[in-house]
Amino acid sequence: MIKRLTIIGVGLIGGSLARAVKRAGLCEEIVGGGRDVAQLRRAVELGVVDRYDTDIARAVHDADMVVLAVPLGAMELVLRALAGQVRPDTIITDVGSAKTSVVVAARNVFGEVPANFVPGHPIAGTEKNGVEASFAELFQGRRVILTPLPHTDTHALTQVRLLWRATGAEITEMGVEHHDEVLAATSHLPHILAYALVDTLVRMDTGMDNSDEIFRFAAGGFRDFTRIVASDPVMWRDICLANRPAIITLLERFRSDLDALTASIRVGDSEGILAVFNRAKAARDRCYQKKEDNDSGAK
Amino acid sequence: MIKRLTIIGVGLIGGSLARAVKRAGLCEEIVGGGRDVAQLRRAVELGVVDRYDTDIARAVHDADMVVLAVPLGAMELVLRALAGQVRPDTIITDVGSAKTSVVVAARNVFGEVPANFVPGHPIAGTEKNGVEASFAELFQGRRVILTPLPHTDTHALTQVRLLWRATGAEITEMGVEHHDEVLAATSHLPHILAYALVDTLVRMDTGMDNSDEIFRFAAGGFRDFTRIVASDPVMWRDICLANRPAIITLLERFRSDLDALTASIRVGDSEGILAVFNRAKAARDRCYQKKEDNDSGAK
Protein backbone atom coordinates (compact mmCIF):
# COMPACT_ATOMS: atom_id res chain seq x y z
CA MET A 1 0.00 0.00 0.00
CA ILE A 2 1.37 3.37 -1.05
CA LYS A 3 0.09 6.26 1.08
CA ARG A 4 0.97 9.04 -1.32
CA LEU A 5 1.91 8.53 -4.98
CA THR A 6 2.96 11.58 -6.98
CA ILE A 7 2.90 11.38 -10.76
CA ILE A 8 4.73 14.17 -12.55
CA GLY A 9 3.18 14.51 -16.00
CA VAL A 10 -0.40 13.25 -16.11
CA GLY A 11 -0.76 12.55 -19.82
CA LEU A 12 -1.53 9.27 -21.58
CA ILE A 13 1.04 7.21 -19.67
CA GLY A 14 0.92 9.01 -16.31
CA GLY A 15 -2.86 9.20 -16.43
CA SER A 16 -3.30 5.55 -17.37
CA LEU A 17 -0.94 4.51 -14.58
CA ALA A 18 -2.93 6.60 -12.09
CA ARG A 19 -6.20 5.03 -13.24
CA ALA A 20 -4.83 1.48 -13.07
CA VAL A 21 -3.27 1.95 -9.64
CA LYS A 22 -6.41 3.61 -8.31
CA ARG A 23 -8.59 0.79 -9.60
CA ALA A 24 -6.29 -1.74 -7.96
CA GLY A 25 -6.69 0.13 -4.65
CA LEU A 26 -2.93 0.36 -4.27
CA CYS A 27 -2.76 4.03 -3.16
CA GLU A 28 -4.44 6.18 -0.59
CA GLU A 29 -3.77 9.37 -2.50
CA ILE A 30 -2.50 10.21 -5.98
CA VAL A 31 -1.08 13.67 -6.56
CA GLY A 32 -0.50 15.05 -10.06
CA GLY A 33 2.40 17.36 -10.77
CA GLY A 34 3.63 19.21 -13.85
CA ARG A 35 3.43 22.41 -15.82
CA ASP A 36 0.25 21.92 -17.84
CA VAL A 37 -2.48 23.32 -15.57
CA ALA A 38 -5.31 22.56 -18.01
CA GLN A 39 -4.17 18.94 -18.23
CA LEU A 40 -3.84 18.61 -14.46
CA ARG A 41 -7.24 20.20 -13.83
CA ARG A 42 -8.81 17.82 -16.31
CA ALA A 43 -7.06 14.94 -14.53
CA VAL A 44 -8.78 15.93 -11.28
CA GLU A 45 -12.16 16.38 -13.03
CA LEU A 46 -11.83 12.93 -14.56
CA GLY A 47 -10.97 11.48 -11.15
CA VAL A 48 -7.59 10.33 -12.47
CA VAL A 49 -5.70 12.06 -9.64
CA ASP A 50 -6.98 13.32 -6.29
CA ARG A 51 -5.32 16.72 -6.46
CA TYR A 52 -2.55 18.50 -8.31
CA ASP A 53 0.19 21.02 -7.79
CA THR A 54 2.15 22.75 -10.53
CA ASP A 55 4.95 23.33 -8.03
CA ILE A 56 7.09 20.20 -8.17
CA ALA A 57 8.44 20.67 -4.64
CA ARG A 58 4.92 20.81 -3.20
CA ALA A 59 3.66 18.01 -5.46
CA VAL A 60 6.30 15.56 -4.23
CA HIS A 61 6.05 16.64 -0.56
CA ASP A 62 5.88 13.60 1.73
CA ALA A 63 5.30 11.27 -1.24
CA ASP A 64 6.14 7.58 -0.75
CA MET A 65 6.72 7.19 -4.44
CA VAL A 66 7.24 9.62 -7.33
CA VAL A 67 6.75 8.58 -10.95
CA LEU A 68 8.31 10.78 -13.63
CA ALA A 69 6.01 10.53 -16.65
CA VAL A 70 7.36 13.56 -18.51
CA PRO A 71 9.11 13.68 -21.93
CA LEU A 72 12.74 12.55 -21.90
CA GLY A 73 13.85 16.13 -22.56
CA ALA A 74 12.27 17.27 -19.28
CA MET A 75 13.63 14.52 -16.98
CA GLU A 76 16.70 16.38 -15.73
CA LEU A 77 14.70 19.55 -15.08
CA VAL A 78 12.13 17.66 -13.02
CA LEU A 79 14.79 15.72 -11.10
CA ARG A 80 16.48 19.02 -10.28
CA ALA A 81 13.18 20.47 -9.07
CA LEU A 82 12.46 17.56 -6.73
CA ALA A 83 16.02 17.11 -5.41
CA GLY A 84 16.06 17.82 -1.68
CA GLN A 85 12.25 18.07 -1.65
CA VAL A 86 11.51 14.36 -1.27
CA ARG A 87 12.03 12.26 1.85
CA PRO A 88 15.26 10.23 1.90
CA ASP A 89 13.19 7.04 1.60
CA THR A 90 10.95 8.27 -1.23
CA ILE A 91 11.12 5.86 -4.14
CA ILE A 92 11.53 7.48 -7.55
CA THR A 93 10.90 5.82 -10.89
CA ASP A 94 10.30 6.99 -14.45
CA VAL A 95 8.67 5.84 -17.68
CA GLY A 96 11.20 7.16 -20.23
CA SER A 97 11.59 5.30 -23.55
CA ALA A 98 15.39 5.50 -23.28
CA LYS A 99 17.21 4.70 -20.08
CA THR A 100 20.85 5.79 -20.42
CA SER A 101 19.84 9.43 -20.77
CA VAL A 102 17.66 9.26 -17.64
CA VAL A 103 20.49 7.65 -15.67
CA VAL A 104 22.85 10.39 -16.89
CA ALA A 105 20.27 13.04 -15.92
CA ALA A 106 20.06 11.56 -12.40
CA ARG A 107 23.86 11.55 -12.14
CA ASN A 108 23.99 15.17 -13.27
CA VAL A 109 21.54 16.15 -10.56
CA PHE A 110 22.52 13.86 -7.65
CA GLY A 111 26.16 13.06 -8.38
CA GLU A 112 25.21 9.37 -8.45
CA VAL A 113 21.91 7.70 -9.26
CA PRO A 114 20.11 7.49 -5.89
CA ALA A 115 19.63 3.94 -4.55
CA ASN A 116 15.89 4.64 -4.35
CA PHE A 117 15.70 5.52 -8.06
CA VAL A 118 14.47 2.67 -10.26
CA PRO A 119 14.59 3.48 -13.99
CA GLY A 120 11.65 1.95 -15.83
CA HIS A 121 9.87 1.82 -19.18
CA PRO A 122 6.37 0.55 -19.88
CA ILE A 123 6.17 -0.59 -23.51
CA ALA A 124 2.69 0.70 -24.11
CA GLY A 125 1.00 3.65 -25.70
CA THR A 126 -1.44 4.65 -28.36
CA GLU A 127 -1.09 7.32 -31.01
CA LYS A 128 -3.20 9.60 -28.82
CA ASN A 129 -1.82 11.94 -26.18
CA GLY A 130 -3.03 13.58 -23.02
CA VAL A 131 -4.97 12.57 -19.94
CA GLU A 132 -8.20 12.52 -21.95
CA ALA A 133 -6.85 9.50 -23.85
CA SER A 134 -5.72 7.65 -20.70
CA PHE A 135 -7.37 4.41 -19.60
CA ALA A 136 -6.75 1.91 -16.83
CA GLU A 137 -6.17 -1.07 -19.15
CA LEU A 138 -3.32 0.48 -21.15
CA PHE A 139 -0.66 -1.70 -19.49
CA GLN A 140 -2.73 -4.88 -19.24
CA GLY A 141 -0.65 -7.72 -20.69
CA ARG A 142 2.02 -5.30 -21.96
CA ARG A 143 5.65 -5.41 -20.90
CA VAL A 144 7.35 -3.08 -18.45
CA ILE A 145 11.14 -3.10 -18.45
CA LEU A 146 12.93 -2.07 -15.26
CA THR A 147 16.64 -1.33 -15.49
CA PRO A 148 17.93 -1.26 -11.89
CA LEU A 149 21.60 -0.44 -11.33
CA PRO A 150 23.91 -2.66 -9.25
CA HIS A 151 23.45 -0.42 -6.22
CA THR A 152 19.68 0.04 -6.61
CA ASP A 153 17.87 -0.66 -3.33
CA THR A 154 16.06 -4.01 -3.32
CA HIS A 155 13.07 -2.68 -1.43
CA ALA A 156 12.67 0.19 -3.90
CA LEU A 157 12.82 -2.27 -6.78
CA THR A 158 10.20 -4.50 -5.14
CA GLN A 159 7.85 -1.57 -4.64
CA VAL A 160 8.13 -0.42 -8.25
CA ARG A 161 7.50 -4.01 -9.35
CA LEU A 162 4.35 -4.04 -7.20
CA LEU A 163 3.22 -0.76 -8.74
CA TRP A 164 3.44 -2.15 -12.27
CA ARG A 165 2.11 -5.56 -11.28
CA ALA A 166 -1.07 -3.76 -10.19
CA THR A 167 -1.55 -2.48 -13.75
CA GLY A 168 -1.58 -6.00 -15.18
CA ALA A 169 1.78 -5.58 -16.91
CA GLU A 170 4.45 -8.25 -17.25
CA ILE A 171 7.71 -7.07 -15.71
CA THR A 172 11.17 -7.75 -17.13
CA GLU A 173 14.54 -6.56 -15.84
CA MET A 174 17.57 -5.82 -17.99
CA GLY A 175 20.63 -3.59 -18.07
CA VAL A 176 20.34 0.08 -18.99
CA GLU A 177 22.41 -0.19 -22.18
CA HIS A 178 20.80 -3.42 -23.26
CA HIS A 179 17.39 -1.81 -22.90
CA ASP A 180 18.45 1.04 -25.13
CA GLU A 181 19.75 -1.32 -27.80
CA VAL A 182 16.65 -3.48 -27.78
CA LEU A 183 14.29 -0.52 -27.90
CA ALA A 184 16.31 1.22 -30.61
CA ALA A 185 15.69 -1.91 -32.68
CA THR A 186 12.08 -2.70 -31.83
CA SER A 187 10.65 0.77 -31.50
CA HIS A 188 12.89 3.74 -32.28
CA LEU A 189 14.20 2.65 -35.69
CA PRO A 190 10.73 1.65 -36.98
CA HIS A 191 9.35 5.03 -35.96
CA ILE A 192 12.22 6.92 -37.57
CA LEU A 193 11.83 4.97 -40.82
CA ALA A 194 8.09 5.55 -40.86
CA TYR A 195 8.49 9.30 -40.34
CA ALA A 196 11.23 9.42 -42.99
CA LEU A 197 9.17 7.46 -45.51
CA VAL A 198 6.03 9.53 -45.12
CA ASP A 199 8.09 12.72 -45.30
CA THR A 200 9.87 11.53 -48.46
CA LEU A 201 6.56 10.73 -50.11
CA VAL A 202 4.69 13.89 -49.20
CA ARG A 203 7.56 16.09 -50.34
CA MET A 204 8.14 14.50 -53.70
CA ASP A 205 6.60 15.27 -57.02
CA THR A 206 6.02 12.14 -59.07
CA GLY A 207 3.48 13.87 -61.20
CA MET A 208 0.82 12.84 -58.72
CA ASP A 209 -2.16 15.17 -58.61
CA ASN A 210 -1.09 16.18 -55.13
CA SER A 211 0.42 14.59 -52.06
CA ASP A 212 -3.04 13.47 -50.96
CA GLU A 213 -2.95 10.89 -53.70
CA ILE A 214 -0.45 8.77 -51.81
CA PHE A 215 -2.85 8.61 -48.90
CA ARG A 216 -5.85 7.94 -51.13
CA PHE A 217 -4.22 4.87 -52.60
CA ALA A 218 -2.52 3.79 -49.41
CA ALA A 219 -2.44 0.03 -49.43
CA GLY A 220 -1.99 -2.16 -46.36
CA GLY A 221 1.71 -1.47 -46.02
CA PHE A 222 1.56 2.27 -46.12
CA ARG A 223 -1.49 2.46 -43.89
CA ASP A 224 0.54 0.78 -41.14
CA PHE A 225 3.33 3.33 -41.62
CA THR A 226 1.00 6.29 -41.45
CA ARG A 227 -0.54 5.00 -38.23
CA ILE A 228 2.95 5.07 -36.71
CA VAL A 229 3.58 8.71 -37.69
CA ALA A 230 0.43 9.81 -35.90
CA SER A 231 2.57 9.68 -32.73
CA ASP A 232 3.77 12.86 -31.02
CA PRO A 233 6.73 14.34 -32.98
CA VAL A 234 8.21 16.08 -29.92
CA MET A 235 8.27 12.87 -27.92
CA TRP A 236 10.01 11.09 -30.77
CA ARG A 237 12.47 13.92 -31.30
CA ASP A 238 13.35 13.59 -27.60
CA ILE A 239 13.78 9.84 -27.97
CA CYS A 240 16.11 10.31 -30.97
CA LEU A 241 18.26 12.70 -28.99
CA ALA A 242 18.19 10.62 -25.80
CA ASN A 243 19.07 7.31 -27.42
CA ARG A 244 21.39 8.66 -30.09
CA PRO A 245 24.29 6.17 -29.93
CA ALA A 246 22.14 3.03 -30.18
CA ILE A 247 19.94 4.60 -32.87
CA ILE A 248 22.88 5.79 -35.00
CA THR A 249 24.50 2.34 -34.87
CA LEU A 250 21.28 0.77 -36.11
CA LEU A 251 20.62 3.42 -38.75
CA GLU A 252 24.07 2.80 -40.21
CA ARG A 253 23.56 -0.94 -40.26
CA PHE A 254 20.13 -0.57 -41.83
CA ARG A 255 21.46 1.80 -44.46
CA SER A 256 24.13 -0.63 -45.54
CA ASP A 257 21.60 -3.49 -45.69
CA LEU A 258 19.18 -1.32 -47.65
CA ASP A 259 21.96 -0.36 -50.07
CA ALA A 260 22.64 -4.04 -50.69
CA LEU A 261 18.95 -4.76 -51.26
CA THR A 262 18.64 -1.74 -53.57
CA ALA A 263 21.60 -3.07 -55.58
CA SER A 264 19.89 -6.47 -55.84
CA ILE A 265 16.70 -4.86 -57.13
CA ARG A 266 18.63 -2.63 -59.56
CA VAL A 267 20.42 -5.54 -61.24
CA GLY A 268 17.39 -7.83 -61.00
CA ASP A 269 19.11 -10.28 -58.64
CA SER A 270 16.04 -12.40 -58.00
CA GLU A 271 17.78 -14.73 -55.52
CA GLY A 272 19.29 -11.86 -53.53
CA ILE A 273 15.92 -10.12 -53.13
CA LEU A 274 14.15 -13.33 -52.20
CA ALA A 275 16.81 -14.21 -49.61
CA VAL A 276 16.12 -10.98 -47.69
CA PHE A 277 12.34 -11.33 -47.89
CA ASN A 278 12.43 -15.01 -46.92
CA ARG A 279 14.70 -14.45 -43.92
CA ALA A 280 12.46 -11.65 -42.64
CA LYS A 281 9.26 -13.61 -43.05
CA ALA A 282 10.76 -16.80 -41.60
CA ALA A 283 11.98 -14.99 -38.46
CA ARG A 284 8.62 -13.33 -38.05
CA ASP A 285 6.64 -16.54 -38.53
CA ARG A 286 8.96 -18.48 -36.19
CA CYS A 287 8.62 -15.95 -33.39
CA TYR A 288 4.90 -15.43 -33.66
CA GLN A 289 4.34 -19.17 -33.85
CA LYS A 290 6.35 -19.53 -30.64
CA LYS A 291 4.37 -16.71 -29.07
CA GLU A 292 1.09 -18.37 -29.93
CA ASP A 293 2.38 -21.67 -28.54
CA ASN A 294 3.40 -19.96 -25.32
CA ASP A 295 0.15 -18.05 -25.06
CA SER A 296 -1.97 -21.14 -25.57
CA GLY A 297 0.20 -23.05 -23.09
CA ALA A 298 -0.09 -20.37 -20.40
CA LYS A 299 -2.34 -21.07 -17.47
CA MET B 1 -24.20 -10.91 -67.44
CA ILE B 2 -21.07 -12.89 -68.27
CA LYS B 3 -21.78 -16.38 -69.57
CA ARG B 4 -18.35 -17.86 -68.90
CA LEU B 5 -15.70 -16.22 -66.73
CA THR B 6 -12.30 -17.89 -66.53
CA ILE B 7 -9.99 -16.99 -63.68
CA ILE B 8 -6.40 -18.12 -64.08
CA GLY B 9 -4.91 -18.45 -60.61
CA VAL B 10 -7.56 -19.12 -57.97
CA GLY B 11 -5.71 -17.92 -54.86
CA LEU B 12 -6.63 -15.18 -52.41
CA ILE B 13 -7.37 -12.56 -55.09
CA GLY B 14 -8.73 -14.82 -57.83
CA GLY B 15 -10.77 -16.81 -55.32
CA SER B 16 -12.22 -13.73 -53.65
CA LEU B 17 -13.14 -12.25 -57.01
CA ALA B 18 -14.89 -15.51 -57.97
CA ARG B 19 -16.83 -15.55 -54.71
CA ALA B 20 -17.88 -11.90 -55.02
CA VAL B 21 -18.95 -12.22 -58.64
CA LYS B 22 -20.83 -15.44 -57.92
CA ARG B 23 -22.65 -13.84 -55.01
CA ALA B 24 -23.59 -10.90 -57.20
CA GLY B 25 -25.07 -13.34 -59.74
CA LEU B 26 -22.99 -11.78 -62.51
CA CYS B 27 -21.83 -15.04 -64.17
CA GLU B 28 -23.40 -18.19 -65.41
CA GLU B 29 -20.22 -20.20 -65.05
CA ILE B 30 -16.82 -19.59 -63.47
CA VAL B 31 -13.91 -21.71 -64.64
CA GLY B 32 -10.64 -21.90 -62.71
CA GLY B 33 -7.35 -22.31 -64.51
CA GLY B 34 -3.74 -22.66 -63.42
CA ARG B 35 -1.01 -25.09 -62.49
CA ASP B 36 -1.82 -25.82 -58.85
CA VAL B 37 -4.21 -28.79 -59.01
CA ALA B 38 -4.66 -29.02 -55.24
CA GLN B 39 -5.63 -25.35 -55.09
CA LEU B 40 -8.01 -25.68 -58.03
CA ARG B 41 -9.63 -28.82 -56.60
CA ARG B 42 -10.12 -27.08 -53.30
CA ALA B 43 -11.66 -24.11 -55.16
CA VAL B 44 -14.27 -26.44 -56.65
CA GLU B 45 -14.91 -28.13 -53.28
CA LEU B 46 -15.43 -24.73 -51.66
CA GLY B 47 -17.82 -23.75 -54.44
CA VAL B 48 -15.56 -20.87 -55.44
CA VAL B 49 -15.42 -21.98 -59.08
CA ASP B 50 -17.71 -24.35 -60.97
CA ARG B 51 -14.97 -26.39 -62.57
CA TYR B 52 -11.28 -26.18 -63.37
CA ASP B 53 -8.78 -27.09 -66.02
CA THR B 54 -5.00 -27.07 -65.63
CA ASP B 55 -4.71 -26.68 -69.36
CA ILE B 56 -4.90 -22.96 -70.05
CA ALA B 57 -6.17 -23.41 -73.62
CA ARG B 58 -9.08 -25.53 -72.39
CA ALA B 59 -9.73 -23.32 -69.37
CA VAL B 60 -10.19 -20.21 -71.51
CA HIS B 61 -12.17 -21.97 -74.26
CA ASP B 62 -15.23 -19.93 -75.23
CA ALA B 63 -14.78 -17.63 -72.21
CA ASP B 64 -16.41 -14.21 -72.39
CA MET B 65 -13.87 -12.83 -69.95
CA VAL B 66 -10.52 -14.05 -68.66
CA VAL B 67 -8.97 -12.69 -65.46
CA LEU B 68 -5.26 -13.26 -64.92
CA ALA B 69 -4.76 -13.56 -61.16
CA VAL B 70 -1.29 -15.09 -61.26
CA PRO B 71 1.98 -13.65 -59.89
CA LEU B 72 3.54 -10.93 -62.04
CA GLY B 73 6.37 -13.30 -62.97
CA ALA B 74 3.89 -15.69 -64.60
CA MET B 75 1.85 -13.17 -66.63
CA GLU B 76 3.75 -13.51 -69.92
CA LEU B 77 3.72 -17.29 -69.71
CA VAL B 78 -0.04 -17.37 -69.22
CA LEU B 79 -0.69 -14.81 -71.96
CA ARG B 80 1.39 -16.95 -74.30
CA ALA B 81 -0.62 -20.04 -73.35
CA LEU B 82 -3.97 -18.40 -74.03
CA ALA B 83 -2.95 -16.54 -77.21
CA GLY B 84 -5.01 -17.86 -80.13
CA GLN B 85 -7.13 -19.95 -77.74
CA VAL B 86 -9.63 -17.25 -76.83
CA ARG B 87 -12.36 -15.83 -79.04
CA PRO B 88 -11.51 -12.53 -80.78
CA ASP B 89 -14.08 -10.76 -78.57
CA THR B 90 -12.96 -12.32 -75.27
CA ILE B 91 -12.15 -9.61 -72.76
CA ILE B 92 -8.90 -10.09 -70.85
CA THR B 93 -7.94 -8.33 -67.64
CA ASP B 94 -5.40 -8.90 -64.86
CA VAL B 95 -4.83 -8.07 -61.19
CA GLY B 96 -1.07 -7.44 -61.18
CA SER B 97 0.40 -4.99 -58.64
CA ALA B 98 2.55 -3.37 -61.33
CA LYS B 99 1.14 -2.45 -64.72
CA THR B 100 4.05 -1.54 -67.03
CA SER B 101 5.45 -5.05 -66.83
CA VAL B 102 2.07 -6.59 -67.70
CA VAL B 103 1.68 -4.25 -70.67
CA VAL B 104 5.18 -5.19 -71.83
CA ALA B 105 4.34 -8.89 -71.42
CA ALA B 106 1.21 -8.43 -73.56
CA ARG B 107 3.26 -6.62 -76.22
CA ASN B 108 5.84 -9.42 -76.20
CA VAL B 109 3.11 -11.99 -76.79
CA PHE B 110 0.70 -10.17 -79.12
CA GLY B 111 2.93 -7.56 -80.78
CA GLU B 112 0.59 -4.87 -79.39
CA VAL B 113 -1.64 -4.90 -76.33
CA PRO B 114 -4.97 -6.27 -77.60
CA ALA B 115 -7.84 -3.73 -77.59
CA ASN B 116 -9.81 -6.20 -75.45
CA PHE B 117 -7.12 -6.32 -72.78
CA VAL B 118 -7.80 -4.03 -69.78
CA PRO B 119 -4.91 -3.92 -67.28
CA GLY B 120 -6.19 -3.67 -63.70
CA HIS B 121 -5.13 -3.79 -60.07
CA PRO B 122 -7.36 -4.27 -57.05
CA ILE B 123 -5.68 -2.66 -54.00
CA ALA B 124 -6.71 -5.33 -51.58
CA GLY B 125 -5.25 -8.34 -49.90
CA THR B 126 -4.45 -9.86 -46.56
CA GLU B 127 -1.22 -11.42 -45.36
CA LYS B 128 -2.75 -14.81 -46.06
CA ASN B 129 -2.52 -16.65 -49.37
CA GLY B 130 -4.47 -19.27 -51.23
CA VAL B 131 -8.09 -20.00 -52.05
CA GLU B 132 -8.71 -21.13 -48.47
CA ALA B 133 -8.18 -17.52 -47.33
CA SER B 134 -10.44 -16.02 -50.03
CA PHE B 135 -13.70 -14.30 -49.14
CA ALA B 136 -16.36 -12.43 -51.09
CA GLU B 137 -15.99 -9.17 -49.16
CA LEU B 138 -12.25 -8.67 -49.83
CA PHE B 139 -12.82 -5.87 -52.35
CA GLN B 140 -15.77 -4.22 -50.58
CA GLY B 141 -14.99 -0.51 -50.26
CA ARG B 142 -11.43 -1.00 -51.55
CA ARG B 143 -10.02 0.65 -54.64
CA VAL B 144 -9.48 -0.99 -58.01
CA ILE B 145 -7.26 0.88 -60.45
CA LEU B 146 -7.78 0.25 -64.16
CA THR B 147 -5.09 1.47 -66.55
CA PRO B 148 -6.63 1.32 -70.05
CA LEU B 149 -4.44 2.30 -72.99
CA PRO B 150 -5.53 4.89 -75.59
CA HIS B 151 -6.66 2.14 -77.96
CA THR B 152 -8.40 0.01 -75.34
CA ASP B 153 -11.90 -0.95 -76.43
CA THR B 154 -14.61 1.03 -74.61
CA HIS B 155 -16.93 -1.95 -74.34
CA ALA B 156 -14.16 -4.08 -72.81
CA LEU B 157 -13.42 -1.34 -70.29
CA THR B 158 -17.11 -1.06 -69.38
CA GLN B 159 -17.39 -4.80 -68.84
CA VAL B 160 -14.31 -4.91 -66.58
CA ARG B 161 -15.73 -1.96 -64.63
CA LEU B 162 -18.98 -3.91 -64.16
CA LEU B 163 -17.03 -6.92 -62.95
CA TRP B 164 -15.31 -4.93 -60.21
CA ARG B 165 -18.41 -2.89 -59.44
CA ALA B 166 -20.08 -6.17 -58.52
CA THR B 167 -17.44 -6.79 -55.83
CA GLY B 168 -18.25 -3.52 -54.06
CA ALA B 169 -14.96 -1.88 -55.06
CA GLU B 170 -14.49 1.74 -56.01
CA ILE B 171 -12.98 2.02 -59.48
CA THR B 172 -10.37 4.57 -60.53
CA GLU B 173 -8.64 4.96 -63.88
CA MET B 174 -5.13 6.25 -64.41
CA GLY B 175 -2.19 5.85 -66.77
CA VAL B 176 0.02 2.77 -66.63
CA GLU B 177 3.17 4.65 -65.58
CA HIS B 178 1.36 6.82 -63.09
CA HIS B 179 -0.09 3.72 -61.47
CA ASP B 180 3.36 2.26 -61.09
CA GLU B 181 4.72 5.44 -59.48
CA VAL B 182 1.82 5.77 -57.06
CA LEU B 183 1.96 2.12 -56.04
CA ALA B 184 5.75 2.17 -55.68
CA ALA B 185 5.21 4.95 -53.15
CA THR B 186 2.17 3.70 -51.28
CA SER B 187 2.80 -0.02 -51.27
CA HIS B 188 6.05 -1.29 -52.75
CA LEU B 189 8.50 0.95 -50.88
CA PRO B 190 6.82 0.38 -47.48
CA HIS B 191 6.99 -3.38 -48.00
CA ILE B 192 10.65 -3.27 -49.06
CA LEU B 193 11.57 -1.15 -46.03
CA ALA B 194 9.69 -3.45 -43.67
CA TYR B 195 11.41 -6.55 -45.06
CA ALA B 196 14.80 -4.80 -44.92
CA LEU B 197 14.26 -3.62 -41.34
CA VAL B 198 13.17 -7.00 -40.01
CA ASP B 199 16.05 -8.68 -41.83
CA THR B 200 18.56 -6.17 -40.42
CA LEU B 201 17.31 -6.78 -36.91
CA VAL B 202 17.16 -10.55 -36.99
CA ARG B 203 20.64 -10.82 -38.47
CA MET B 204 22.40 -8.51 -36.05
CA ASP B 205 24.00 -9.25 -32.75
CA THR B 206 23.45 -6.46 -30.27
CA GLY B 207 24.17 -8.73 -27.39
CA MET B 208 20.50 -9.64 -27.32
CA ASP B 209 19.83 -13.09 -25.91
CA ASN B 210 18.72 -14.10 -29.37
CA SER B 211 16.87 -12.64 -32.28
CA ASP B 212 13.57 -13.60 -30.66
CA GLU B 213 14.13 -10.80 -28.17
CA ILE B 214 13.32 -8.16 -30.76
CA PHE B 215 9.96 -9.78 -31.33
CA ARG B 216 9.32 -10.22 -27.62
CA PHE B 217 9.74 -6.53 -26.98
CA ALA B 218 8.15 -5.40 -30.21
CA ALA B 219 6.37 -2.15 -29.49
CA GLY B 220 3.59 -0.69 -31.60
CA GLY B 221 5.89 0.46 -34.37
CA PHE B 222 7.66 -2.79 -34.95
CA ARG B 223 4.52 -4.87 -34.65
CA ASP B 224 3.12 -2.99 -37.66
CA PHE B 225 6.30 -3.72 -39.62
CA THR B 226 6.26 -7.41 -38.81
CA ARG B 227 2.65 -7.68 -39.95
CA ILE B 228 3.75 -6.35 -43.32
CA VAL B 229 6.52 -8.96 -43.72
CA ALA B 230 4.05 -11.79 -43.22
CA SER B 231 3.19 -11.27 -46.90
CA ASP B 232 4.33 -13.72 -49.57
CA PRO B 233 8.06 -13.17 -50.34
CA VAL B 234 7.79 -14.54 -53.89
CA MET B 235 4.96 -12.18 -54.77
CA TRP B 236 6.97 -9.23 -53.43
CA ARG B 237 10.13 -10.35 -55.21
CA ASP B 238 8.09 -10.39 -58.43
CA ILE B 239 6.76 -6.90 -57.70
CA CYS B 240 10.30 -5.57 -57.09
CA LEU B 241 11.45 -6.96 -60.42
CA ALA B 242 8.32 -5.86 -62.30
CA ASN B 243 8.27 -2.29 -61.03
CA ARG B 244 12.03 -1.80 -60.83
CA PRO B 245 12.40 1.71 -62.35
CA ALA B 246 9.79 3.40 -60.13
CA ILE B 247 11.01 1.52 -57.05
CA ILE B 248 14.68 2.37 -57.61
CA THR B 249 13.87 6.06 -58.08
CA LEU B 250 12.02 6.07 -54.77
CA LEU B 251 14.64 4.04 -52.92
CA GLU B 252 17.29 6.53 -53.98
CA ARG B 253 15.23 9.47 -52.86
CA PHE B 254 14.41 7.81 -49.56
CA ARG B 255 18.05 6.95 -48.95
CA SER B 256 19.12 10.54 -49.41
CA ASP B 257 16.35 11.78 -47.08
CA LEU B 258 17.26 9.14 -44.50
CA ASP B 259 20.93 10.15 -44.72
CA ALA B 260 19.94 13.74 -43.97
CA LEU B 261 17.80 12.68 -41.01
CA THR B 262 20.57 10.42 -39.72
CA ALA B 263 22.97 13.37 -39.89
CA SER B 264 20.48 15.50 -37.92
CA ILE B 265 20.23 12.83 -35.21
CA ARG B 266 24.00 12.35 -35.13
CA VAL B 267 24.74 16.02 -34.47
CA GLY B 268 21.69 16.46 -32.23
CA ASP B 269 19.97 18.90 -34.61
CA SER B 270 16.74 19.10 -32.67
CA GLU B 271 15.02 21.42 -35.16
CA GLY B 272 16.03 19.33 -38.15
CA ILE B 273 14.62 16.13 -36.62
CA LEU B 274 11.42 17.81 -35.52
CA ALA B 275 10.89 19.35 -38.98
CA VAL B 276 10.80 15.89 -40.58
CA PHE B 277 8.55 14.38 -37.92
CA ASN B 278 6.17 17.35 -37.96
CA ARG B 279 5.85 17.38 -41.75
CA ALA B 280 5.06 13.67 -41.79
CA LYS B 281 2.49 13.85 -39.03
CA ALA B 282 0.88 17.02 -40.44
CA ALA B 283 0.46 15.44 -43.88
CA ARG B 284 -0.98 12.31 -42.35
CA ASP B 285 -3.40 14.18 -40.08
CA ARG B 286 -4.48 16.48 -42.93
CA CYS B 287 -5.27 13.63 -45.28
CA TYR B 288 -7.03 11.44 -42.77
CA GLN B 289 -9.07 14.39 -41.55
CA LYS B 290 -10.13 15.03 -45.13
CA LYS B 291 -10.94 11.35 -45.55
CA GLU B 292 -13.12 11.35 -42.45
CA ASP B 293 -14.87 14.50 -43.65
CA ASN B 294 -15.53 12.87 -47.01
CA ASP B 295 -16.65 9.62 -45.46
CA SER B 296 -19.07 11.33 -43.11
CA GLY B 297 -20.35 13.48 -45.98
CA ALA B 298 -20.91 10.50 -48.26
CA LYS B 299 -24.46 9.30 -48.74
Any overview of this molecule?
Two copies of one chain form a homodimer. Chain A is α/β, with parallel strands linked by helices and 299 residues long. The first copy, chain A, folds into two domains: 2-174, Rossmann fold; 179-268, 6-phosphogluconate dehydrogenase C-terminal fold (Orthogonal Bundle), CATH 1.10.3660.10. Helix content of chain A is 54%, strand content 13%. Chain A contains twelve helices and nine strands. Chain A has helices spanning 12-23, 37-45, 56-59, 75-82, 100-110, 154-165, 176-203, 212-216, 220-228, 233-242, 244-267, 270-297; strands spanning 2-8, 27-33, 51-53, 65-68, 91-94, 117-118, 120-123, 143-146, 170-173. In chain A, the strands form two sheets. Chain A has a six-stranded parallel sheet. The first copy, chain A, has a three-stranded mixed sheet with strand order 7-8-9, with helices on one face. In chain A, helix 2 (37-45) links the parallel strand 2 and strand 3 (51-53). The longest helix of chain A has 28 residues, at 176-203. The two termini of chain A are 27 Å apart. The mean pLDDT of chain A is 91. At the A-B interface, helix 7, helix 8, helix 9, helix 10 and helix 11 of A face helix 7, helix 8, helix 9, helix 10 and helix 11 of B.
